[in-house]
């Protein structure tokens, strides 16, 4: 199954740039700093609290406090996803400014976009798009500024900047405060991928679900057994809002008790659009191949099921229809070789 999952052309729709940084990139970045000796990722099989997960991002942010580092991380992350046979990748990242190094939010986004363009120029077999992330901790004004920044960069890079993400520590702030900001983003043609119900959140969820977002990140606690409500479930089903699901991340962060109780099962059985994603492949020491494998083992999925999951994920990408069509050709091209190698009919 491992070999099959590796060869499978894949779609990654939920990857935070700084959480995706690999050990080898960390080594390069640490070499540029003095006295930074931390553990930047969780070992396989470990568990943590969500707070401890967010502490890792804080440590990584100390390494990516300048445009060169932001460029390097983005560039390496794209190469690594490409090596993992990810053919379409949506990255998301929170624009950050660091006065001491002269990094402004504009320069931050510029560094990310330059890395994407440079990978494009190398003709890598991967299409990359960008969502700008709003960290809920930072409040509405920052959210507003992020949407303005996205609008600006969408004008200069209409083919790359596709949406807005809401993320950050789910226990902080009230997502409803951002609703006017999301409406403005939507009016401007930006898509919305919102972290929702990563932990039980009865207050804000309904209003955010009714926007509706174009995709939901995690949605761990939407269903009644996990602290949500039937009304949440019905609303998601009615809008057919796709869910970005990250098994290892939820397991390590302990937002699910174990994988058998992961929300993937609940939604997949309802034939609701589910997308397998990594979240933070660096921090959680995983890859998209491993996430597919884990889903296969945990939920008894066949190669055909995995093939469908990866191909269908293309439907929920925030890119133009003609690009989706072009990318689906990759699955067509890979099919005969995979059928032969694994002796099956896909
Ligand atoms: C919520 C998360 C997250 O933006 O600096 N982030 N937000 N839940 C999660 N589940 C574990 N994983 C990552 O990447 C790091 C940032 O992404 C968000 C957090 O805001 C984190 O600081 P960027 O590239």
UniProtKB/TrEMBL annotation:
Keywords: Hydrolase, Metal-binding, Nucleotide metabolism, Zinc. One of its GO terms (biological process) is adenosine catabolic process. Residues 9-330 form the Adenosine deaminase domain. InterPro entries: A_deaminase_dom, Ado/ade_deaminase, Metal_Hydrolase. Its cofactor is Zn(2+). GO terms for molecular function: adenosine deaminase activity; metal ion binding. Monomer. This is Adenosine deaminase domain-containing protein. It comes from Magallana gigas (Pacific oyster).
């Amino acid at each position: 199954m491992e070999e099959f999952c590796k060869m499978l052309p894949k779609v990654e729709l939920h990857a935070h740039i700084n959480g995706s940084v690999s050990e080898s990139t960390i080594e390069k970045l640490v070499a540029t700093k003095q006295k930074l000796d931390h553990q930047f990722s969780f070992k396989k099989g470990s568990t943590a609290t969500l707070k401890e997960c967010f502490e890792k991002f804080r440590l990584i942010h100390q390494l990516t406090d300048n445009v060169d580092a932001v460029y390097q991380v983005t560039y390496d992350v794209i190469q690594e996803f490409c090596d993992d046979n990810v053919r379409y990748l949506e990255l998301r990242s929170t624009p950050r400014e660091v006065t001491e190094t002269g990094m402004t939010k504009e320069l931050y986004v510029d560094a990310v976009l330059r890395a994407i363009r440079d990978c494009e120029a190398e003709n890598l077999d991967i299409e990359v798009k960008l969502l700008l992330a709003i960290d809920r901790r930072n409040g509405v004004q920052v959210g507003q500024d992020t949407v303005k920044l996205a609008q600006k960069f969408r004008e200069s890079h209409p083919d790359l900047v596709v949406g807005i993400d809401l993320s950050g520590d789910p226990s902080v702030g009230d997502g409803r405060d951002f609703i006017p900001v999301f409406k403005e983003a939507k009016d401007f043609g930006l898509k919305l991928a919102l972290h929702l119900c990563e932990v039980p959140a009865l207050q804000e969820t309904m209003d955010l679900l009714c926007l509706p977002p174009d995709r939901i990140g995690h949605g761990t606690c939407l269903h009644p057994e996990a602290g949500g409500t039937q009304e949440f479930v019905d609303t998601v089903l009615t809008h057919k809002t796709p869910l970005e699901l990250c098994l290892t991340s939820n397991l390590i962060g302990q937002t699910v008790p174990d994988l058998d109780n992961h929300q993937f099962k609940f939604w997949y059985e309802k034939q609701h659009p589910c997308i397998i994603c990594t979240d933070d492949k660096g921090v959680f020491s995983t890859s998209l191949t491993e996430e597919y494998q884990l889903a296969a083992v945990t939920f008894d999925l066949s190669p055909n099921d995995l093939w469908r999951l990866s191909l269908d994920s293309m439907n929920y990408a925030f890119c133009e229809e003609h690009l989706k069509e072009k990318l689906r050709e990759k699955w067509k091209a890979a099919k005969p070789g995979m059928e032969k190698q694994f002796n099956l009919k896909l």
